[in-house]
Amino acid sequence: MDGTIGEIRLFAANFAPKDWWYCDGSLLAIRSNTALFAILGTTYGGDGKTTFALPNLMGRSAVGAGQGPGLSYYDLGESTGNNTVTLNMMNLPPHTHTATGSVVIPAFSEEGDSGSPSNNVLAAKGAMYSSQGSDSTTKPIPLPLQVGAAGGNAPLSINQPSLGMNYIICMYGVFPPRS
């Protein structure tokens, strides 16, 4: 399969063709691959004296180097991103959750005859708890509530729908002319 040295292609087979290799981050000897080293250098790793690395696109998507309008800048060879992220309070905009409820306490105009509230109903002097007539419940009391933080801090998958394929790089072929 002909190619230009350093060219990367998607390949649907489970093998790399002759003169091609997987983009798997492999460290290669410079002395055995001088043409490819002349193109890649140490952009993807290696010490630059005896070794250099191939790009590692296993489980990753390629993104164009540079910056488009309104987009982030990416250096050639920069690896970024995560498979999952855990959202916490710092990731969410400030907000509150409100709930409302009413508390109704039955009260009677007769005076109480027990000093213990256990299993008893509030007793009162007439109109002590309510302006309503005697032997009635009190008026509902608006009770604003603020709900606290909830959640389990479990990581959230951020992978887009994907199909596993092999990225391969041309190791031996036509050396690309510089323009």
UniProtKB/TrEMBL annotation:
<dbReference type="Pfam" id="PF07484">
    <property type="entry name" value="Collar"/>
</dbReference>
<protein>
    <recommendedName>
        <fullName>Phage tail collar domain-containing protein</fullName>
    </recommendedName>
</protein>
<dbReference type="InterPro" id="IPR011083">
    <property type="entry name" value="Phage_tail_collar_dom"/>
</dbReference>
<feature type="domain" description="Phage tail collar">
    <location>
        <begin position="6"/>
        <end position="61"/>
    </location>
</feature>
<dbReference type="InterPro" id="IPR037053">
    <property type="entry name" value="Phage_tail_collar_dom_sf"/>
</dbReference>
